[in-house]
């Protein structure tokens, strides 16, 4: 049984505070490299609200804290060890220097608001958060934009699962099917946020 399957099986056997604690721990541990699929874990947790294992609002709050903890850890590794770490042969197998450079260039082009779009990119989040950290983007931008994206994602996911009666497999299949639409939409939102940020910044009076 894989780590992911073990966590999900254990989560379904718990109730109340222990379940919230395991969910937070599993999400946060993904920032240390634990092989956890955040999306599937959150879908399962949302389905468990139908059984009374957890409640929707506390689940959203705990998951929000867990996601930001994991993302901040990956961001921190990039911020602190980005360039030296990537010189190691093992690291370059996971994230080649050319791929990191391309990701960094995209983030320079879109600015810090690109972090908002990263939350909606399954399979690319870790590498992109690491790239953002290696660019020395301020931590406050991570918490503002990633936190805002998680506040959009989590209620939609939790109440979406409850709406379809806990058939989280249907939602997962739908996300995979329409991923080509969701990612450009997320990028469009990020671009709008960048333009708004630049417009407001241009309108500020110069500092004396």
Automatic annotation (TrEMBL):
Pfam families: VTT_dom. GO terms for cellular component: plasma membrane. The chain crosses the membrane at residues 20-50, 57-77, 142-161, 181-199. It is a multi-pass membrane protein. Its main location: membrane. The keyword Transmembrane helix applies. Keywords: Cell membrane, Membrane, Transmembrane, Transmembrane helix. It is found in: Cell membrane. InterPro entries: DedA-like, VTT_dom. Residues 39-161 form the VTT domain. PANTHER family: INNER MEMBRANE PROTEIN DEDA-RELATED (PTHR30353), INNER MEMBRANE PROTEIN YABI (PTHR30353:SF15). Belongs to the DedA family. This is DedA family protein. It comes from Ramlibacter lithotrophicus. The lineage of its organism: Bacteria, Pseudomonadati, Pseudomonadota, Betaproteobacteria, Burkholderiales.
């Amino acid at each position: 049984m894989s780590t992911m399957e073990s966590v999900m099986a254990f989560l379904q056997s718990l109730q109340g505070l222990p379940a919230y604690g395991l969910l937070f721990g599993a999400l946060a541990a993904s920032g240390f490299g634990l092989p956890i699929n955040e999306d599937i874990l959150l879908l399962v947790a949302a389905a468990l609200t139908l059984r009374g294992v957890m409640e929707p609002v506390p689940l959203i709050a705990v998951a929000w804290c867990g996601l930001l903890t994991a993302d901040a850890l990956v961001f921190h590794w990039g911020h602190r060890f980005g360039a030296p770490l990537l010189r190691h042969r093992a690291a370059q197998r996971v994230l080649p220097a050319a791929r990191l450079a391309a990701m960094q260039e995209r983030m320079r082009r879109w600015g810090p608001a690109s972090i908002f779009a990263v939350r909606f990119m399954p399979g690319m989040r870790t590498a992109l958060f690491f790239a953002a950290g290696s660019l020395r983007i301020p931590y406050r931008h991570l918490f503002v934009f990633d936190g805002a994206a998680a506040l959009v994602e989590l209620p939609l996911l939790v109440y979406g699962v409850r709406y379809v009666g806990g058939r989280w497999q249907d939602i997962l299949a739908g996300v995979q099917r329409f991923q080509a639409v969701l990612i450009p939409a997320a990028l469009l939102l990020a671009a709008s946020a960048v333009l708004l940020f630049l417009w407001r910044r241009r309108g500020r009076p110069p500092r004396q």
